[in-house]
Structures
1.
Amino acid sequence: MSNPIDAGAPTGYTYLPVPTQHVPALMEYLVSLGAPKSVTADEHERHAPAHEDFVGQDAVWADELLRRLASDTLRSAHNAAAAMTVIARKTMEEGERVWVGNDDLAAETGIDPVQMPKVWSGFGRYISNPRNGYPAEWPLATRTASRLPDGKQGDARVLYSFRSVERAKRWLQITTEE
């Protein structure tokens, strides 16, 4: 079977219901096609681009757009903004960029842990819709880690971080403005 990625197949995502027992085999197959592999937090840090590589991203999310997001009433946007506030607070507490997973975000925001991935999924769909007026690029950096930052082994997890301490600080300033 030829590799559809190499054959010029359309890019993007298709949501496909898969029986749970087949998920591991499907994941292996996707990896064999060249899908990104999970990395440990340490591996990511060694290979992560420097902050300067993300400067353009902050410019896309200007302060006015962040203000709009902070006051957006759509549930997924509101919940994503609450999670971003948690990430920003943790960043400021540590004084450096931190990576926060869904379990911690759920505990801090009061959102059901099962719902956290759905929050991000809904948020991603919302901001990528041009009618909503947001940049399609995420205001956060994400990474997948098979080992959590505290050294525990676990399933592949998605972790979230502001792209810089300065951006986290700015988010807190914007969300606390009167």
Note: The two ends are 59 Å apart (CA to CA).
2.
Amino acid sequence: MKTSFQDAPPDKEKSTYKIEIYFKDNPIPIEDFSKKEGYSEVKNKELLLKKWILRLHRYKYLNYTPGQPTLSSGGIDEVESVDFFFKSDTGLHDILFFKLFQDYHEWNEKYFRESMENFLNQFYELKSEGKDPSTILDQKLPKKSNDQLSLKSMRFHARRPLQQFCLVLYRSDTFPIGLIKEFYRKYCERYFDGFTSEDQSFFDGLKFG
């Protein structure tokens, strides 16, 4: 019988992200990773982060209520912060992405992402109002259609709108990143001056959301 996602051991080597959870009364953090053994990791890494944050809220790590049961009583001790990391070239999850506290968040400025900032602002606003932050993701994803990746006509006359279109597809998890990149490459080759190093940099940046 397959182990449930919640109980499955972490797949540290293949995980995109790691978190360290710091408790107020314990200086030693606990770790968790974005991929579990026996389960595929969500392709859309920004969606992965959002769902993870919402789970942390659901399980009281980011939803502390004074007087709630502590660990010794079968609950969760008060969390000071949850720190998110991603891999460096060393293969270790040692680059700080951002830190989440009970009522606010802090960025590693070098890796600031506006789309995640918007999500986190919504998250904390709903939390402060006593509302369920999971409603942020209560929106229907666009239906898949091969017409979205059609090369029959020049729908985009510059790289920027083409990149924005590909970002929408990527963030909605509509198509695999490999298929989106192949469409982008062929579009550049057909209608622009080819696929350049600048285009490659655009796709390299998608791993941060």
Note: Helices lie at 45-58, 114-128, 159-171, 177-191, 197-204.
3.
Amino acid sequence: MNTEKIVSFRLIKPLLGKQPDFLYQENQKYLLFQPLREKSILFLVGSQLPVLIVPDDNSSIIRQIKNRKNDDFFSTPLSNLKFKLDFINIAEGISENSWYRDGLLVKETNKIKKAEGEIDTPVTFKIISQQKMDIRKTNYVHLLKIEPLNLGIKGMPPITQLLFDFHDSCSGGISESTVLLKSKFYNNNILTETTGKIFTMKIKSQIFGSWNDKRFGYNTLSFGSNWDFDWDSWQEVDESEYSKPDKEGVFSEPTKNDNKSNDNHSFSKKIKGFQNTKIGMIIGVILVLIALILRKKKK
């Protein structure tokens, strides 16, 4: 079953320090946004909230975006996005240290549509193996290795791991989220008896890797709360509903350095000059700021 994977989002101005919310490259103007779900982030790549880069071609949909209301949603296929590693240094003009934000470039604006609301992204995958890891009292992570899952984003590797994070707190949801530790998946055979089986689920927030664990790179999707995936959508499906992964993935053209594989990219290198112990605090501050923006826009 090869169905196009679509995401929906609201758009706010990105948190770029002194950087403008647009730029020019090769005589083309690009608008910069932070894409969000209703109450949470849409994308998190390691420790970074990537910026959505939209060509300003003065088309009808661009005019709608410029004149959008606070609760307007838009949608586009994941295959219409291209990952841009270290897209912009948001610390420029503020600090001597660099802090790079990744970007997601919209390839074709005519594939952006007005949406009625949030759209969860259904995925189907076959599990190769499963393992509980890092068990500490009540907390642990559960890693599922899967056959390659192609989300369609150009410059990103196929997903080969799903990481379920059972901790008291996590970075996926902004506010009012319920952590996975309080779900039906916690210490249950729902995940332990999965090897060799095929499952489907609906993803809400696309969280690539782990913001505080270098073992998990761009080939890992992480889940820590009910803002990250629809808990009730998890179900085993028949072989007939599963398509074998393509031999060629979307990661045929690395975005920045041909000798560097993004699936093992070290997220700690993204914030040069900052101590890794401060990364979590920085992410927390950004999420709180976004939460305040969302609440203010709702009033």
Note: The radius of gyration is 19 Å.
4.
Amino acid sequence: MKKLLVIFLTYYTDYTRSSLNALESMLAMARVPYEIIIVNNGNSELSTKPHTLIAGDNSWNEFSGWQAGINHARLMGSLDNCLGVVLANDTLGHHNRFGLLSRCMFAMNLRKIINLKEPAAAGECWDFYTDYEVSGYRCSRWITTSLLMVNWAALPGLDPVIDPKITPASSADEYFRMFNVSKELKHQVQGWLGQIELPSGKPLWYGVENDDSPKYQRKIAQKTAMILLEYRLSARLAEHGAKLIDVFGGKLLPQLRRFEAKPVKVNKSHP
């Protein structure tokens, strides 16, 4: 029997159980058979029975973890005969609201894309104000990777999650060059991370500090790489023909989500 392959990335041990419970609640609503591979990118021991647990190296944060999960699934033969792939991480429900409404919308769209013959990916989508380019791919929207769902037909656009040409860098500018990003996307990322001033005057990342130290600049560089990997993944899926579906499409659902429980604030960051 074909199953949905779910790759769940954990780093913050305190978040693992609650996030995994929320994810499994959504999967139960979708009523699809699934198997979960948990990738531990942290150093703590975890009890994850009955799910498969493998070690990640955190070299590219969640993206290297998901790649490790995909590689393991391919080795075990799970990837060749699956309904699709779900990528999730342990900040699910901590950065974003993931109450009953959110779980219902994700479950409904998961069943929808699994039944499509055409390539499709679903999640919380955001529209860019113009086309952007990254790593040679072009797109006009992106999907938040805290929970990304991809059907079987779209798998060629998912793997590899990490661009093999990208190497570790010490500055954001180096990553912008390596990813070959358009000026519009560079401006967006710099504003989001507080490197340039936005019209609102407020950066959007919770980790922004007024700090010019080399340590903080390395932190900004690392976050820049993660954001660009997220944009790259959406653009790569789209270039391979995948329709990017917003599970909260329309104007009403985003408003209704405000009535869900507020997410727990995160004050930690990857080293």
Note: Confidence is low (pLDDT under 50) at residues 264-271.
